[in-house]
Amino acid sequence: MALSRRRRLVSAGYEGEGVTLRRPHAGLLRRERRDLQHTREELIHELGGLMVEMYRRADYRDELLAQACAQVIAVDERIDEIDALLDARRQRPACVCGVPLLAGARFCPNCGRGLAGVTSLPQHPRPEEG
After folding, report:
1. What does the angle CA 108 – CA 26 – CA 20 come to, to the nearest 5 degrees?
2. pTM of this prediction?
3. How many Å separate Cα 115 from the centre of its chain?
4. Tens digits of per-residue pLDDT, 58-76?
5. Are 78 and 42 spatial neighbours (Cβ–Cβ below 8 Å)?
6. Phi, psi dihedrals of residue 107, rounded to the nearest 5°
7. Where are the beta strands (DSSP E) in 5-126?
């Protein structure tokens, strides 16, 4: 519900005009991402069916293909937004060697360095979900 309120406020142009918008809870974001993944799979399935039907009739309609592809791309963009929000929450302090540190730790569990070597978590590419 909070997510739909945020979308209404942003679409109405209220973001940045003194309206403080809170990020949705991580569980809501993961649920929305899972639903979007399911929707994406359905859209791609329908796109494949559309291509087969066009091939069968030998009547390719570029506007239908462009519309179907645009829907898939829109879903992909929202999934990327959600991933960025979730990644921002996951960043924790890390040692120079790249191992995340536990709260209250004084030494790295991997290399034994002291807290003086603490940096932000290095950016590693996330593995693609299949």
Report:
1. 110
2. 0.56
3. 32
4. 999 999 999 999 999 999 9
5. no
6. -140, 155
7. 93-94, 119-120
